[in-house]
Design a protein that fits this description.
Elements: H1 10-17, E1 20-25, H2 33-46, E2 51-56, H3 58-61, H4 68-84, E3 93-96, H5 102-111, H6 116-120, H7 123-131, H8 138-152, E4 158-160, H9 166-182, E5 191-193, H10 228-236, H11 253-266, H12 270-276, H13 282-308, H14 311-340
Parallel strand pairs: 1-2, 2-3, 4-5
Helix pairs in contact: 4-13, 5-8, 5-14, 8-9, 10-13, 11-13
The structure holds tryptophanyl-5'AMP.
Length: about 350
Amino acid sequence: MTKMVGILPRMEAEKLTKKTILSGMQPTNDLTIGQYAGALRNWVELQHEYEALFCVVDLHAITVRQEPAELRKRTLDVAAMYIAAGIDPDVSTLFIQSHVPEHSQLAWVLNCMTGFGECSRMTQFKDKSATHADNVNVGLFTYPILMAADILLYNADLVPVGEDQRQHLELTRNLAERFNHHYSPTFTVPEPFIPKVGAKIMSLQEPEKKMSKSDANEKATIFLVDTDEAIRSKVKRAVTDSGTTIEYTEKRPGVANLMTLYHITTGKTYAEIEQEFSGLGYAEFKEAVGEAIVAFVRPVREKYQALRADEETLKATLRKGVEHARDRARKTLRKVYKKTGFVEF
Ligand code: TYM
């Protein structure tokens, strides 16, 4: 008989040796194909190699005004979409940010270590305060500090995100180093994981601008819940330029963006795509891109609808996730509080 004494169950042992990834998305709208390309796609890839934690960042969402019932619904929508897009809840830890109060608690400590100037430099803060000029609240300003807390609480080694989060990751690294230096080594200094291709999917209507879930022009954005018809129509109406050939060049951002979406949904390289459409025009190209996106989105959307129809199971998955997340979070916060000088409770 094999001796089992002292041997950890395999999953537990793996969790102890694997490096950690953590990432999250705001439940402020349906998820877009941009978010999939820049982040979610890599979460799916990396979840087997790393101990993976993925949260729905509802605390971040209220930096912009939310309707409570809508926020509640969207938080579950986003969790269901993570799973529909390929996150395996038996492999990864899925949870809702506000269910782990340690995020806000660590954020406070980090708030007290961040310069006003550092937050003022954040381009996303500048952009958002321009688009939400009627509600430039302090939460919007300290948003990246809460994001740093999300990451540092789990000592994440790697954070898979799109290009627009690079600056926030830089701040997170600075805060980790600052705390470690000021007290003693506590936090892992995380690396961003920003893909070479797909880190910034552009708007279908203004290809020099990032595709955004909150674009007022809904033709600009493909959502992972869009119907086949909506996808076909958005791609067909996508703004390109007056050229005729299908070539990947930064000088023609509209065509380049569609080529990237074709690459993401079919796996074909840019060279293969150029060859496939050599001698053909924009109409044929757009039709193929539309069909490729439809073929990719349809099963995701259908799985999402099935998951969403069973809210109890979804909530049970999130309850299971939060237990593990809180365990890790509590340990880190306890250390941080102790080093900070708080009397132990
Ligand atoms: P959010 O919710 O705006 O977007 C989620 C992720 O999707 C990426 N993304 C894109 N990638 C490529 N092309 C696009 N057009 C595009 N649009 C969005 C984003 O870069 C992001 O990775 N602050 C974060 C959420 C967050 C977080 C965290 C992320 C909070 N805490 C901790 C990582 C770790 C945000 O607003 O993402």
